[in-house]
Amino acid sequence: MSSKRKRTIFDELKVLLGSRTRADEMELQLYGKDSSVLSGVPSTVCFPVNVEEVQGIVSICNRFQRPFIARGSGTGLAGGAVPIGNPVIISTAKMNKVLEIDLEDRIAWVEPGVLNLDLSKALSEFGFHFAPDPSSQQVCSIGGNVANNSGGPHCLAYGVTTSHVLAAEVVLPNAEVVTLGGIDPEPKGYDLRGLFIGSEGTMGIATKVAVRLTPNPPDVRTLLLDFADVSDGALAVSAIINAGIIPAALEMMDHNAIGIVEAFVHAGYPVEAAAVLLVELDGLSGGVEAAVQTINDVAKIHNAGSVRVAKDETERALLWKGRKNAFGAVARIKPDYYLHDTVVPRSKLVEVLNQVYQIADKYELIAINVFHAGDGNLHPILAYDAREPGILERVHSAGDEIIKASMEAGGVLSGEHGIGLEKRDFMHLLFSAHDMFTQDLVREAFDPQGLANPMKVLPSGSRCSDSFKQNLPEGVWV
Amino acid sequence: MNLGTIERQEFAESVAGSDLVTVVGGKTQWDVGGTIDPNARVISAPVGIYDYTPSEMTLRCGAGTTVGEIQDTLGEHAQMLPVNAERGSTIGGILAVGRSGIRRLRYGAVRDYLLESWHADHEGKLVKSGGPTIKNVSGYDLCRLLVGSLGTLGFLAEVTVRSLPIPPCSRWMTGVCDPFDLQSKLYRPSCILWNGNQVWVLLEGHPVDVEREANITGLSECSGPPVLPSAGRLSLRPKLLRELPQMYKQDWLAEIGVGLVHLSEPIKNDQSSLSAVTVMRDIKIRLDPTGRLNPGREVF
Lengths: 478, 300
Ligand SMILES: Cc1cc2nc3c(=O)[nH]c(=O)nc-3n(C[C@H](O)[C@H](O)[C@H](O)COP(=O)(O)OP(=O)(O)OC[C@H]3O[C@@H](n4cnc5c(N)ncnc54)[C@H](O)[C@@H]3O)c2cc1C
Known about the structure:
The structure holds two protein chains of two kinds.
Chain A: H1 9-17, E1 21-22, H2 25-30, E2 44-46, H3 51-64, E3 68-71, E4 88-91, E5 98-102, E6 107-110, H4 116-124, E7 128-129, H5 142-148, H6 155-158, E8 165-171, E9 177-181, H7 192-196, E10 205-212, E11 214-215, E12 219-227, H8 230-242, E13 249-254, H9 255-265, E14 275-283, H10 285-301, E15 304-309, H11 313-324, H12 326-329, E16 336-339, E17 342-343, H13 349-362, E18 366-371, E19 377-378, E20 380-384, H14 391-408, H15 433-446
Parallel strand pairs in A: 2-4, 3-4
Antiparallel strand pairs in A: 1-2, 5-6, 6-10, 7-11, 8-9, 8-10, 12-14, 12-15, 13-14, 13-18, 16-20, 17-19, 18-20
Chain B: H1 5-15, E1 21-23, E2 41-43, E3 49-53, E4 58-62, H2 67-75, E5 79-80, H3 91-97, H4 104-107, E6 114-120, E7 126-130, H5 142-146, E8 155-162, E9 164-165, E10 169-176, H6 179-185, E11 191-194, E12 198-205, H7 207-217, E13 220-222, E14 232-235, H8 244-247, E15 252-255, E16 260-263, H9 277-287
Parallel strand pairs in B: 1-2
Antiparallel strand pairs in B: 3-4, 4-8, 5-9, 6-7, 6-8, 10-12, 10-13, 11-12, 11-15, 14-16, 15-16
Bound molecules: flavin-adenine dinucleotide.
Residues 34-35, 69-77, 80-81, 92, 112, 134-136, 140-141, 143-145, 147-148, 150-152, 200-201, 205-206, 327, 416-417, 453 of chain A line the site of flavin-adenine dinucleotide.
């Protein structure tokens, strides 16, 4: 390096992290994408190992006025981790330690790169787990869960991430390190913890997270109900809730999904059924047994073909394996898929599902539905082959219509995948300009310069400081 | 037009102006956060239940609706809001203060029950946050920011809250035992209270389970918990409650597993440290630049 040349941001990051600062072609390409269909181009990828290094990177970005993005495992489906504005990517992959398990306070402090399932595994010997269980739990990170306020099948009874994160150490966009929330029940001040959770990396970078430990239930029963008619299945969902039961999980798979999943896991799913409900009940045995009885009654009233109760842990695991790998199994019919995420009132499930099928037909796509029926959270999968000319436009148009149909039914844009880039331009369907302006005011209190993950969550018009929108790389679909 | 639309609009308009303004609920927690500037104009939020679909487990109402009315409506369908407030408290007041009821151990914090809110901002404009469904990711979570903000960032006009089924059986037990040991023996009790000597525990669920757990406690049944001392309130990490007998001479009642302590005398100097004050201050300045909303209340 010539001593006269001004040091670039890359040079500075190199000094800070050595070989953990990278910018080779391959790496940049890899980190240009997450699990959505969107992509961008980062300038550099950094792998810090502690909060001081994260702070150092953010300071350097401040000095160079360069945006930065936190990245967990890149499993986000809304483009939250897709780099816009040539940012520095701050990967949490090397910050993956469970720091402290405190059984008396029933909390654990973990680094953000800890994988969701690894955390529950680390807790299992003590009889606890981390309740949010996204289907991607084998690979997604706690930092990503916090940023997206992720959910999972068992969030029906237990609540999504925000109910299970008590505090977070955060490097703010100005490089200050703060603790949001606390492990006492009423931390002083505004609930910045609650605000940070779900902010998709636009309010800073979580470097340490305090999660609540949930005791493993003493009794668990998993049931599979099959229906010859999707409407019956959907009505059974409301009937179960009306009977005063909140199952730990209440998942639905439609005919297309059942076929794909069965071919993949061979769990004995009834391939001829129009829909199945996977119901899990947990808690103390008296309540669980009573609920099993009620569900049998509901099944009869709503014309279920049969009720299969998993007889042991192996069978239970197999049924869940089917559900949790449904997305991957789609590859058996088409190489690519677009996974949607909207929520509708439970009473509108049948109506919106039917619309989803009609929309898919109209655009000659295959719709597969595997979703969190208990909380009305639809996950229509549109399966396609990206090599087919013009197909992506059709997929996008169909997706737009699905979102609009859900909104018209009184639903919301996302149940758990977030807004990211994918849905920010749909925010106006739910919110007025003034609503979004207010959200933006709050975001700006964290990040007045707009350096943290710019262009995400809010449409560009509502943001006062989106100075990076001119730099939209080609091919980014926003 | 949806029920409540006009009411919330009129409420927002009543906030507009350049004077100091405060919103009053049931006055059951009026002193929390400091004395309101006596020059503040007093208004109150709309009252009424606009929507309730039991199978959605959501209820939409004016923020001035009392908890009594909400619980009665939900109760007709064997549902409830897991707060333990006086019947005259308004839902807006409960959320603005943000204190959860004594069953937090099982049901979680009150902030988790607010799904969607409409609030009037400092200019008297309405702002909607969150979403009406029991699960939603809807941009920045301003609902959580508003809970516990003591009305210093905006005044709740209308809220959608989630409800829960009323457990088929509830029993209070009391006696003398180690409350920490008791907690570890029970699966998700609803509440454990301790005064340094006596323990009260609330068990809820299926009658068979409640009976079984009641036997595990070895305590005897009672009609309910004692009156909570209300002069002081302390928030501690749960395991610090063990040290309470050495810490305080006055009467107290602690929520085991949660970390709240209710005291019979006010706490003198609150030593708890506060992080991210700059951001909090900045949020306040941005959302209420002239400081006209609930002047006198201090959140941090
Ligand atoms: C097959 C499949 C199934 C899925 N199933 C579910 C499901 O059931 N439920 C569900 O909710 N989601 C699901 N997802 C989506 C995804 O897994 C979750 O959103 C997950 O929480 C993302 O975690 P991640 O580590 O991959 O985050 P990334 O994709 O790396 O990042 C997501 C967002 O988080 C931000 N971020 C990451 N780390 C931090 C940090 N430390 N501090 C601040 N911001 C940070 C990023 O900037 C980005 O905006 C699924 C995804 C796939 C591919």
